[in-house]
Design a protein that fits this description.
Helix content is 39%, strand content 15%. The chain has twelve helices and eleven strands. The longest helix has 17 residues.
């Protein structure tokens, strides 16, 4: 089949834009190539308009020129707040109704959409769940692991990705504050646009609790891989997560992160069998302590079964498009 044109736009450092480019590369799609009357785009309202309604209008305008399929990201959920949930749900509903096909990245996301957008919005669109890919990096490119680091260096607990409310950095800082000895919380990334004050608040919280705190800023791929492999304990402590590029990054680096249980993480624990150390919010400090005592437990075993890689995900998209009623 002829691929649709693949839309890649927005901030090239944004996770959604990066994923759109990653998938386009895997599909061998050059800029502007593809079926002239068909379009696929990766949608989050924050990339398509100044507010959710404007973002939906932008997609509807594209769909008026020919059939559009969409991958939805950052789907609406109660953590958006009552007004945010209403406005974002209305916008995502408009996008779904305008689309000939819809992809989400987890069954949990599909459930959220049906709950908050309404089942009726999906009546005319083909729907598929295609998980975010995991691409294991070559082991030969790994720098020295934390197991062989300097004996006098303080151990580190790494949180990967952008800083924004609900990502769980504050939860990790409080968990580390209750541990004996010096432990540094590493932020492997930068503040999401508009959330610089949230990062400053985290620095203040860490200081008030006597917790070491380091922020790397934006990291190019090679540097991110290196830091992902040298932090002592990788952690994911999202309070509200429906899909996680951070998880794919940790797994791709060969790490077995400590993750706080949620419907999405439980779904991913089944997909990536044996690759996650699942705990509860209340048990996070104890889980980090166990990992600090046994750093080898934070690395994936050779036989661990991970979910699809990018090439396999590209094949799933091809199959999805074959079933769309263009």
């Amino acid at each position: 089949m002829t691929l649709p044109r693949l839309h890649v736009g927005g901030d090239p450092r944004h996770g959604v834009t990066r994923y759109a480019q990653q998938l386009a590369d895997a599909l061998g799609a050059s800029a502007g190539a593809g079926h002239p009357d068909r379009l696929h785009l990766h949608f989050t309202d924050r990339l398509f308009g100044a507010d959710p309604a404007a973002a939906a209008t932008a997609v509807e305008s594209l769909a008026a020129s020919g059939p559009v399929t969409v991958t939805l990201h950052d789907v609406p959920q109660p953590s958006d707040g009552a007004d945010g949930l209403r406005r974002r749900s209305e916008a995502y509903g408009r996008v779904v109704r305008a689309a000939a096909g819809v992809v989400v990245n987890s069954e949990h996301e599909l459930g959220l959409l049906r709950r908050h957008v309404g089942v009726g919005a999906f009546s005319s669109a083909r729907v598929a769940v295609i998980p975010l890919p995991v691409d294991p990096a070559p082991v030969s490119s790994s720098p020295p692991s934390p197991l062989s680091g300097a004996a006098d260096a303080a151990p580190t607990v790494g949180v990967l990705g952008f800083v924004y409310p609900g990502k769980g950095h504050d939860r990790v800082i409080r968990a580390v504050a209750g541990l004996p000895g010096a432990v540094v919380v590493e932020v492997l990334g930068r503040a999401s646009d508009g959330h610089e004050r949230d990062l400053a608040a985290l620095e203040s919280l860490a200081g008030s609790l006597g917790v070491g705190f380091e922020v790397t800023g934006y990291l190019p791929d090679a540097a991110l891989l290196s830091r992902s492999r040298t932090t002592t304990v990788p952690v994911i402590a999202h309070e509200h997560v429906s899909a996680s590029g951070s998880l794919a990054s940790w797994l791709g680096a060969g790490r077995r992160p400590v993750v706080v249980a949620s419907p999405y993480m439980e779904e991913m624990a089944g997909l990536h069998e044996g690759a996650l150390a699942v705990t509860t919010g209340e048990g996070l400090a104890a889980a980090i302590a166990r990992a600090l005592d046994d750093p080898a437990s934070t690395w994936l075993d050779d036989g661990v079964r991970l979910g699809p890689d990018t090439a396999e995900v590209a094949g799933m998209y091809r199959e999805f498009w074959r079933g769309v009623a263009w």
